[in-house]
Write a structure and sequence with these properties.
mainly alpha, DNA polymerase, domain 1, 5 helices, about 0% strand
């Protein structure tokens, strides 16, 4: 059984080492900022999102393809987070 600490560490690592640099740069900083304060339900939703294919994630993030409804709220949050980071630079 995975401990809560091990789960957070795995999720952070998976956020930074996706397979495409674009998704690393979106998910990595988000994980660094949000994981520690997420509820169990939010962690479950993020874990499910991490299981998705990078090409699908990118298409959903860019609104090139409709995202599954289960991921829509989290993807909207990720878009706001990524947009805010771009504006801050």
């Amino acid at each position: 059984m995975e401990t809560p600490e091990a789960r957070l560490k795995r999720m952070a690592m998976r956020s930074w080492r996706r397979g495409t640099k674009e998704m690393d740069l979106v998910l990595g900083p988000y994980a660094d900022t949000a994981l520690a304060t997420m509820s169990l339900a939010e962690l479950d939703a993020y874990d499910a999102l991490l299981a998705e294919n990078d090409q699908d994630l990118m298409a959903w993030m860019l609104d090139q393809k409709p995202a599954p409804k289960v991921h829509a709220p989290l993807l909207a949050e990720l878009r706001v987070f990524a947009s805010g980071r771009l504006r801050a630079k």
